[in-house]
Amino acid sequence: MATKPGERRLQILQTLAEMLETPKGEKITTAALAGKLECSEAALYRHFASKAQMFEGLIEFIEQSLFGVINQITGEEERGFRQIELILGLLLNFAQKNRGMTRVLIGDALVNENERLQLRINALLDKVEAALKQALRIAATQETFKAEADFGALANLLRCYVVGRWEQYARSGFSREPLAQWPQQWPMLYFACLSQAGDA
């Protein structure tokens, strides 16, 4: 039974993501990918115009997966700090469950690939940071924040925390799991934000 075009595209992306899970992080070639799929390189190019387009497919999957849930969180949860907690937990959990995608998120898998791919990841992370900044603004309406509280700096701090955990996960050969110390670290992050509140 023939595989439908959409199913074959998904199969190619899944295989690419699996190949990215190798801790050594060797450069992935279309020849190696075709070998894994037991097809010719020409067969790959019937579904994707280039390897860069395959990586774009992975980035689109990441965007849809993350922002589908982030939009749900911000739409259903009224408390700003709870939004932040849920968004950060989502970002850490996604990486822990998707090793290959983590290497895409930190740019490790994009070295020597088309530079527009890293620009897309940068834009994705900027959107995450913007969502965190908005949640902080909501929290500010529920807490007595100092007049000089810098929501941009706080949102960037939270973004850097997540990216740092992703980096540690990938660089450790996926042994230092992002969620390992989350229960202890979230209160620390929470109080770092809350320290910008008035008498809190």
Automatic annotation (TrEMBL):
What are the alphabetically sorted keywords of the record?
Answer: Coiled coil, DNA-binding
Domain HTH tetR-type: from-to ranges: 28-56
Q: Coiled coil where?
A: 107-134
Pfam families per the record? SlmA-like_C, TetR_N
Q: Which InterPro entries match?
A: Homeodomain-like_sf, HTH-type_Tx_Regulator, HTH_TetR, SlmA-like_C, Tet_transcr_reg_TetR-rel_C_sf
Q: Which residues form the Nucleoid occlusion factor SlmA-like C-terminal domain?
A: 81-190
**NCBIfam families in UniProt:** PRK09480.1
Stated name of the protein: Nucleoid occlusion factor SlmA
